[in-house]
Amino acid sequence: MKKVTSIKEMQKIIKGFQREGKSIGLIPTMGYLHEGHLTLAKKARSQNDIVVMSVFVNPLQFGENEDLATYPRNLERDMQLAAEVKVDYLFHPAAEEMFPQKQAITMHVEERTERLCGASRPGHFDGVVVVVSKLFNIIQPERAYFGKKDAQQLAVIDLLVKNLNFPIELIAVDTVRESDGLAKSSRNVFLTEIERKEAAVLFESLQAAEAIITEGEKNTARIIDVMKTMLHEKTSGEVDYIEVLSYPELQPSDEVNGVIIIALAVKFTKARLIDNIIITA
Ligand SMILES: Nc1ncnc2c1ncn2[C@@H]1O[C@H](COP(=O)(O)OP(=O)(O)OP(=O)(O)O)[C@@H](O)[C@H]1O
Ligand SMILES: CC(C)(CO)[C@@H](O)C(=O)[O-]
Ligand code: BAL
């Protein structure tokens, strides 16, 4: 596996593969790799001639009081793990390489961002679509791989691809979980021992919501109440949001019907965790 830090060099390499008619798969990440990222990479490996993984902690998608400075990083370990799943290129530009001057062009996503992380992290998805557009332009992949753990991100990038006509197939990959159900996330490393044990209730509350919907509950407020009670009883974390919305449109409704997302965000001492399930009600 080769590490590339220069955009120009990456573009030259990509051009060469395009001339040879090779298909390219891209896995955009912020690094500190875990089994979730590696599952995306394995899927990409099985579907493409060339696999590129980007590791870039994008400053544009962090709010002023968020964890940009402390976001976990370990490039040596990332390179080892990416090589093990046969990634061909690890694209790791410095922030100054991606954004050499103040970004003169901004993007704003009008739909699918009013709720969930779009509401609690204002400007987050505007920053995500800028960096993802840059990565799509540099790597020009045939396929790009994203995790369903970040389901709102997936819905927004789906809009990006359709609205800006990127000739890219989005591949959505199921959330990879720890044995107690906690979604794997780079930020899990910030949980205290007690918080880590409590954090299993995030997925348990999603499963409880699914169970009562399967038994016939349709009322959105009652579903949210059940989850809220469980989370209050079983964790010291502060609930940021619990929402039940249509997917991928992310619209609220008093009664659940059709394809829905049940999503939550919980703030622990040093980590804000998100999780969701997408089901048909
Ligand atoms: N548990 C997981 N299962 C499947 N995909 C995942 C999982 N965790 C992250 N991904 C996906 O990996 C890609 C890169 O995500 P990112 O580097 O932000 O990792 P992360 O673990 O989500 O970190 P964070 O702590 O920021 O939530 C995204 O498409 C994301 O949805
Ligand atoms: C897609 C992404 C790499 C853009 O910075 C990031 O939001 C992430 O890791 O999910
Ligand atoms: N995977 C989400 C990236 C972020 O939290 O900024």
TrEMBL record:
UniProt: (R)-pantoate binding residues: Q61, Q153
Coiled-coil ranges (or none): none
PANTHER family xrefs: CYTIDYLATE KINASE/PANTOATE-BETA-ALANINE LIGASE, PANTOATE--BETA-ALANINE LIGASE
Protein name, as recorded: Pantothenate synthetase
Broad EC category: ligase
GO cellular component: cytosol
Keyword Methyltransferase: no
An example molecular function term from Gene Ontology annotations: ATP binding
UniProt keyword list: ATP-binding, Cytoplasm, Ligase, Nucleotide-binding, Pantothenate biosynthesis
Record Pfam families: Pantoate_ligase (PF02569)
Pathway this chain belongs to: Cofactor biosynthesis; (R)-pantothenate biosynthesis; (R)-pantothenate from (R)-pantoate and beta-alanine: step 1/1
Gene: panC
